[in-house]
Write a structure and sequence with these properties.
Number of strands: 6
Strand content: 5-15%
Mean pLDDT: 88
Radius of gyration: 28 Å
Low-confidence stretches: 1-15, 56-66
Strand order of the largest sheet: 3-2-1-6-5-4
Helix content: 40-55%
Shape: elongated
Structural class: alpha+beta
């Protein structure tokens, strides 16, 4: 059985740490076709792979940078020579391959209880390069070819997209590969009511993980005929059907996509709305709710103010207090100067004018 997250045995953690240290220590010579890998086996049967590429122009004086790191998820069955037993054993050496149109990634390392690490070697495919050149795309670096292999990209994907009317640029080819945009994906979106999507819209849909469940879920909640860009924006911000239902349970219905977005940015939930109501703020407008969340007017903030004698402060003033930094701690500092029970509006003006700094410095 695979250990639950956070429950990895100490021996496995030590193994992984040592494996990574050894891998990076041995990996002293920059090489664009070699590097280091780590893996985590997921409950759904996929391997969450992370590849640290060897040669990179942005390595910098601290060694390996973020630009040579690539992550991808892949079903275990896609790896030749690797079994579930290998991955989940207490300790096992492993040599396996990921064979793709763009080339083969050969992995060598060790696994322990679902966690692995080691070295890899990438062998690009000459036929892949020729096929891409025949389609009008050339000059790919080893790093780009590795990315194509990791994401299972093939020249046939371009041919299929062209048959649907798309003419990707070389830069767009990379996005098509990373986000796995295929003709089947395009047809599925068309079936769901979003046909003739531009490539940028397709990329945004994939970034937001827009799928059939998301689209149908939003439609069931009354959000039909939402433009593609707006739907992608909602998905990217995690304005999901579950989020809409949560707000609906708090009495917020018939919200526009813009209102949903503002509330999501403010991290407003039914639980927070209920907490505000218990504190006496039961008639907050949608804008006030969004501003409460955005500026940090929390339950604790209100309770701390009440403990200092500031009760029943209007919602707008609470927001202004947060914007200008009139916090409970700030009020305590003003109280310590001998100024107690200062009205909220005067505290805000004091903070805005900067006169408080003069007072606080004089006290020192």
């Amino acid at each position: 059985m695979i250990p639950a997250e956070g429950s990895l045995p100490m021996k496995s953690l030590l193994f992984l740490l040592l494996a990574v240290i050894v891998c990076f220590s041995a990996y002293a010579t920059p090489d664009s076709r070699s590097g280091v890998w780590t893996a985590e086996f997921q409950d759904d049967g996929t391997l969450q792979m992370t590849i640290f590429q060897g040669d990179n122009v942005d390595r910098g004086r601290h060694g390996m940078g973020m630009n040579n790191l690539m992550g991808f998820d892949e079903p275990l069955a896609s790896f030749a020579g690797l079994s579930r037993t290998d991955v989940t054993s207490a300790a096992a050496n492993a040599q396996f391959e990921l064979r793709r149109a763009a080339g083969t990634i050969a992995f060598d390392g060790r696994f322990a209880n679902g966690t692995g690490a080691g070295h890899y070697r990438f062998i690009p495919s000459a036929p892949f390069v020729r096929d891409m050149e025949a389609l009008g795309y050339s000059g790919f670096s080893d790093a780009q070819l590795l990315m194509f292999a990791a994401h299972d990209f093939s020249p046939q994907i371009i041919r299929d997209l062209r048959s649907l009317g798309y003419q990707p640029t070389q830069r767009e080819v990379e996005e098509i590969a990373v986000f796995r945009i295929t003709a089947d994906v395009v047809r599925e979106y068309a079936r769901l009511g979003y046909d003739k999507l531009a490539l940028r819209e397709l990329v945004n849909f994939r970034v937001g993980r827009v799928d059939a469940a998301f689209i149908s879920g939003m439609k069931e909640l009354g959000y039909t005929n939402i433009p593609a860009k707006q739907l992608a924006d909602l998905a990217i911000l995690q304005v999901t059907p579950a989020f809409v239902r949560d707000l609906k349970s708090a009495g917020l219905t018939n919200l526009s996509p813009r209102q949903l977005t503002d509330l999501k940015i403010g991290q407003i939930t039914a639980e927070k709305i209920d907490a505000y109501k218990k504190l006496g703020y039961s008639n907050l407008t949608l804008r006030e709710l969004g501003d409460f969340g955005l500026h940090g007017v929390t339950q604790k903030f209100i309770e701390d103010l009440r403990a200092l004698g500031y009760k029943d402060i209007p919602a707008r003033q609470l927001i202004e207090m947060r914007i200008f930094g009139v916090t409970p701690d700030y009020i305590r500092r003003i109280n310590a100067l001998g100024y107690s029970n200062v009205p909220v509006e005067k505290l805000i003006k004091l903070k805005m004018s900067g006169a408080d700094e003069v007072l606080l410095k004089a006290k020192k």
